[in-house]
Amino acid sequence: MRDKIVINTAYAEASIAAIKSTVGDGRALCALSGGVDSMVCAALMSRAIGQNLVCIFVDTGLMRLNEGDEVEKLFYDSFNSQFIRIDAEDRFLTKLAGITDPEAKRKIIGEEFIRVFEEEAKKLGTIDFLVQGTIYPDIAESGVGQSLVKSHHNVGGLPDVIDFKEIIEPLRDLYKDEVRQLGTILGMPDHAVHRQPFPGPGLAVRVIGEITKPKLDTLRHADHIFREEIAKAGLDKTIWQYFAVITDIKSVGMTANARTYGHVIALRAVHSQQATEAQVAHLPYNLLSTIVTRITSEVPGVSRIVYDITPKPPATIEWE
Ligand code: XMP
Fold first, then answer.
1. Strand order of the sheet with strand 53-59?
2. pLDDT tens for residues 137-166?
3. With a 6 A CB cut-off, is 150 part of the ligand 1 pocket?
């Protein structure tokens, strides 16, 4: 366990000063995944080195509905650094074709991320530093000398050889709530700071079994409805994470006049402080019913929906 860290203006200024002294006049490349961590990380870096920071947002095709555009807008609204968006969907889906093992998926995604950065970095000329939004629980869970829970893609998935002088992880001492506090201190808008956590490997860890574009599209649609209804019910700020998972099970269902055989979607909503433990959110039944009605009638190919009531531990928050 780590000592308590107080997140205040002095902490932010000290972090910015430390980054300035490490990077000097060098240039840094920052990976944006769409999650809170990488955004706060980029905000910190941007404050420290401005135009010497190049942020690359890799659209892996594993993002939630409209997420790519939201990330781009947030960046242009809040940062004064360079932004590059790469559409790498085909590349990621080709690499992931036929892969069902969760750890194999994470490794492939982590490695592909790094390859994309390397290629972009080469186009940009000299880039000295690779910045990652790794936070403390990522390190604790993937950590040296501890049993491996999952290889978080920004730690365990790193390939051995990286073409950068150094990797900087400005958030590596912080828990998620502290990352959010830091984001607020750095002037990031509320909706960005209170975005629910989103894993580096994206929806890949929420598509059980083989990852295909049709499964991703089905998941995105169902997940969007779930999130929309949670927001409408005013629960979006109080629940730590809430998302849909597309399982690898198909199930028999029925419409007015025909038998169907469609996907089983799982819904998960948890409360947590630091993601190291999580308690299931007791969503009202009438809300769950509304969500089920909407998903089964609006998303083609879904025949059944289940609600996951397993805390962490013994389950992890993500299904993979
Ligand atoms: P688990 O599933 O391990 O997740 O209980 C704990 C928290 O971490 C997020 N998560 C990830 N974040 N890279 C990330 O940056 C990853 O590979 C990864 N896997 C899980 C998860 O969404 C939860 O908030």
1. 82-87, 53-59, 28-32, 129-131, 166-168
2. 888 766 544 455 665 555 434 444 456 788
3. yes
